[in-house]
Amino acid sequence: MLNIDTVQKNIFPGAHDSIWQAFPWHGGAASPHSSQALAVSVFGTLAVHPECQVLVAETLHLMFDWDPQGDGEWRVELERDLPRSLLGERRPTQVDVLLQNKTSAVLLECKFTEAGGGPCSQTKPLSSGKHKGLIQCDGNYREQTNPVNGKTARCALTAKGIRYWKYVPRYFDLDAHVDHEPCPFSGPAYQYMRNTLAAGQWARDHDQERAAFGLIYVEGESFSVAGEVADPQSEWGQFVARLRSDAPVAVQAVSYQRLLETWCQHFPEDESLARLAEWFAERVSNVERTLRPDVSVA
């Protein structure tokens, strides 16, 4: 059972007022490597900061070159479950951070030590049950029959009523009526795609004019997502390259370091932000030592 006191000790103190006993903690939230703990520490501090509205505006200007002044008050929500009906999902997309006001919605996916985004589960062997070991999709977007339910479709999720490929052509230069081998979303880009579609459809359902998906990561050679963002041939690079120029959602990646630098530059005398930046630097340094034990980290 997760010890809440241990988890709270793993969170920057300035963020404590943004969380509570029933918060949907992940199993590893007490670990220094926890991406959830890092995201809550940074964006939980943002949520309760007296200058929250200004900091959100600075964040969106940095990430998407938006000028959100005059668009109404921003709400900052952590670990928000989106409705299953949004994309027809059986398990709802869970957003690390949701920023929204009357005109805009921004979904943020926060990474720390992960290798990248989460791949599609349909290409993995089932781990239990009477169909244990069976694979529901071979990793290609082409007509095939799911050995578990006997349904035939180009996408095993489409056959289950999940509407990703209904919306994909609206956001990506991909035709849902032709084969794609391999499927562009069978690997880590799957999670990025889900979040992009969710951001766009959430804004559409709530009559919001702007939508965005942002990937937040940690800079450094030891952190895989930083390398992925920098490489145009990576899953992230190829994912971004497939986006339509007229897609109804903005997509961008930015590091925690750049965010914190921007916040601290805007409020250079703010002690809470300075302490957060120091806490973050120490957390990253300590974790990097465990990832590269043969290298001394200054």
Explain what you see:
There is one protein chain. By secondary structure, the protein is of the alpha/beta class. The chain folds into two domains: 4-118 and 187-291, no CATH class; 121-171, no CATH class. It contains ten helices and seven strands. It has a five-stranded mixed sheet, with helices on both faces. A two-stranded antiparallel ribbon has the order 4-5. Helix 2 (35-48) packs antiparallel against helix 10, helix 3 crosses helix 9 (256-266) and helix 9 (256-266) runs antiparallel to helix 10. The longest helix is centred in the C-terminal third of the chain and has 21 residues, at 271-291. The chain is globular.
Features:
alpha/beta, 2 domains, 5-stranded mixed sheet, two-stranded antiparallel ribbon
Rg measurement, Å: 20 Å
Helix content: 25-40%
Query: What percent strand?
Result: 5-15%
Characterize the overall form.
globular
Count every beta strand, where a strand is a DSSP E run of 2 or more residues.
Answer: 7
Average predicted local confidence, pLDDT: 94
What is the overall number of helices? 10
Task: Tell me the domain tally.
Answer: 2
pLDDT under 50 segments (min length 5)? Answer: none
Strand order of the largest sheet: 1-2-3-6-7
Q: Which structural category fits the helices and strands?
A: alpha/beta
Gap between N and C termini: 36 Å
- Helix and strand succession? HHHEEEEEHHHEHHEHH
Oligomer classification: single chain
The biggest sheet amounts to: 5 strands, mixed
